[in-house]
Predict the 3D structure of the following.
Amino acid sequence: MRKLVYYAAVSLDGYIAGPGGEYDFYPGNDAYTAWMAERFPDTIPTQFRDQIGLGDVPNKNFDAVLMGLSTYLAGPANPFAHLEQYVVSTTLEKSHHPAVTVVRDPVPLVKELKQRDGLDIWVCGGGKLAGCLLPEIDRLVIKSYPVIAGAGVSLVSGNFQPTQFTPVEHISFDTGTYVTWFDRK
């Protein structure tokens, strides 16, 4: 069965973006960027895939993506043309591109997608969407950066619902960034 995976970057104080959706404050370098492109090519927006030599690279991890409204509106109208794309919103009437489907309630969709054959399903921001989907999230892939944001969009927001995960893999980089995989306990 496919897994719902929340793959996200986070600051030391638990923010995935700044108050205005900023994420350019996360440090990186060429080695880290190359690792991300190799390990998670499917998470690179379509507009950049050709530029970094990923144009024809098949998806490795995901073939569907769920985005919150702010995440969707921050990018191009068809951000991940190489994935089945859903934007979760109660206010957006229709997407800005026919390849992106607007969904009001993501839980039934996730349950349906999990039953289909395919690669895993990626939760691509934001914290409110992750909070709504927390009971369905099977795996976390958290890229932790050595920076304090001070304010912004929380990794997960919503109701108090303690949920245990077990670390299953960990890698660190000389920038002080580390990536940890957690599976639902």
